[in-house]
Amino acid sequence: MNAATLEDITLKNGFQEEDVERALRKFGVAVLPSWVSQPNLDNLRAEWEHIRSLRNKDEVAYVRKVGGDIADYAAFDRGSVTAPTFETVDKVFADDKIVQLTEKIVGRPCMLNTEIYATHDIGTGKEVAPSHFDKTWNLKFMVYLEDILETGRGAFGVHPGSAPLARQQFRAWFSQLEHNGTITVGVPEFYTMNNEVLPEGLPPFVEILAPAGSLIIFNTDVFHRGSFLKEGCERKIMRAHTYPGTRLLGFGDKLSKRTRQWERGEKWEISGAAYSQFSEQGIVELYYDLRHKFTKHLSVGKHFAGKMFTIPNRVLTKSAAVVSRISKR
């Protein structure tokens, strides 16, 4: 079988649903050149600037600085109750065709492009990021804000068709460390996930050279990376992340074999089967969601018990014991 090329993963007829789905099933990625219109692109650039201007303001809860010491990125929580509306961000990343696609691949409930990254890289003569798959599975939508038409401009790229290898690697790691079918996010074992180890048989890397306004849709189980960025060159991108469920997984949450974070879109990819809230997966995800809300409220109750009024310790102890028993099942 011949290795996939940029031409193979590029769709020249726009956002045709069948074509996009076919590319995502086969390669895990679909490239739509110049999909964002020029007026929307101009507005998106302005909103990118606005979002980034808020990243260091502690009083702004809906934008945070991310990237640590490696990158200076801004993450916008589009679903925050305090967040303003960025009209073009909504227009582009909540387009009807994107909504329909995510409902098929990710299913409901999901966080439809709730997390928006406004990224700005300045070249140091190195790769922007090494090849990897994401620890927590999601579907991403990336827009080039400037032309990236030649090597050395930090083009995003993928190893087309590599999702099965990533899932195999993820599940082998999971099986070694899981306890009762789960792994807890944030514990030391979680960070041993070998998502940057390149497996034998990994397909060749394809650099996605494309004009400004191009949309790249990809399943994060496909090995992907940010390619070489010449010293002093700039790379400006906006990307959106759609996760299964109703909230981002955080410290203490569970990765479970009975949720979409284990399946990672594989069922849809193989058979086109849509996720159902009434399946075993749906019930398990609902349980974890309710458990999170209950323990959060319990924590708030403990806080107020010490600050404003007294809740008998036996009540708190009994409630905590109930949560503990449930979590062990």
UniProtKB/TrEMBL annotation:
Gene Ontology molecular functions: 2-oxoglutarate-dependent dioxygenase activity
One Pfam family recorded for the sequence: PhyH
Gene3D superfamilies: q2cbj1_9rhob like domain
Protein name: Phytanoyl-CoA dioxygenase
Organism: Thalassospira tepidiphila MCCC 1A03514
